[in-house]
Design a protein that fits this description.
Radius of gyration: 24 Å
Order of helices and strands: HHHHHHHHHHHHHHHHHHHHH
Number of domains: 1
CATH class: Mainly Alpha
Distance between the termini: 51 Å
Oligomer: single chain
Number of strands: 0
Helix content: over 70%
Structural class: mainly alpha
Strand content: under 5%
CATH architecture: Up-down Bundle
CATH superfamily: MFS general substrate transporter like domains
Shape: globular
Length: 500
Amino acid sequence: MGIKEKLLETKPGQNLTRALDQIKENEKDPGSMKLKEYIGFGLGRLCYTSIAKMGSDYRNDYYTSRGVRPAISGILMSAQTIFDSINDPIVATYIDRRKNTGNGRFKPFLAKLVPVLAVTSIAMFSAPNFDSLTTLIAWFFMTYAVWETINTFSGISMDAISTVMSTDPKERTLYTTVGNIGITLAGAIPGLIPVARDALILPKAEGGLGLMTEATFYTICAVVFATVGGAAGVFTKDLVERIEPPKKADHFWENFLLFFKNKELLLLWSTEIPQMISSAASGASKWFYTFTLGRQGYQTVEWIIGGIPQALVQPLAPYFMKRFRPSRIVFWCTMANGLLYLLMYPVVKWVGFGAWGVVMVILFTSLAFIPSGISGIAKRLLQLNTFDYTAARTGQRAEATNFMMYNMLGKWLFAIATLIGNFALEAISFKEHINGMPQPQTDATKAGLFFLFAIFPAIGNILGSLPMLFFKLEGKEYERRMAALGAVTEAKAELEVEIV
């Protein structure tokens, strides 16, 4: 029986069991990853994702809850992104060019910075009651600048360390899977926010307790995120870096050029461009549940119903990666997500926004959640391939700078999307907060919120899946290219010996 036939007979559970058995065997091998590393990587992903998610997903909500108009908030966040454009390259270049003191190139910026990151993330959601709106906006900008600097050191280092922990494909698949489970768990924390918001903010006449304003609520949430994330981040002290770059760039600008030489990584990044359209709807989702469906707590139900299957599917990633090309996994999962949102729009419009409408929205969005877990793992493995291939081709890695460029371009897209989304809210006559409380909306505004919620992600994900049809750096093609580069390197080495 051939390898392929044996693989097709293997069941998902057997792959997971074998992976766990392999980890136990590797405890005796000093060159292999240990169980505490897998756990540390997963908790590290949980740490930085949870803290970063609070800062990115709810910063705009906090600003508007403090009386800042949506359009002004969008401009503020765009200005913050301009700061990122200056700050991130400086941080990434410093990380890539610093000397390895024996503790690794990236590890020193992880566990030790967690307490500082936690404190600054709380400060970002704890603005005093200034009399001047200008002073309030200045506070928002300055606290974000400090938080983002620390977050960049830690976040980029967490991304970069994933490229140097192991060269073994099985170990990479496994720790990438564990890391994505950590990311999913971090996403489950904000899943509690909508139902908690309804219970604590809404007045008693609307089924809530009316205990606090929305601004106070987000401050409390920031404390929770920082505490949970900070506790998890301590375990990144167990991570080990096993791969050293062949050489460092002579000039800092070579690190930036390396990103543009990594054509396969650029192709992966291009999948994010159309998804900007999807991100533009992120600001409308909360208000869609709050006003169109009548209760933001329904969003929690959606995250639970979709999040649990998503988390359960992720441990089966090694099984899927053996059977299917990762690029095709990303393509079909992203396409399925877009099609589900596209189909949801006419169905919900037909049944209306009553009880059946709520059921249909939760059903379609929950189903769209499930494939994203496997898709995220597949895309990260493809990213690691591009770093190894570029290192073999150029002799350089510059992981921090490359991830910085990847993430910074994504931030630009998110900032543009947020600006578009906030202006879209004003275009559909979405009303501002008054004294920290959201105001009633018209039927036209409620319908507009649903359009932003459904159609924007549908278009973004469908278009975002298409670049993956052209990705080739995987499987036999990846092995062929790496073997060819190895042969060229050996030939050059032999020629140099003959010359000497």
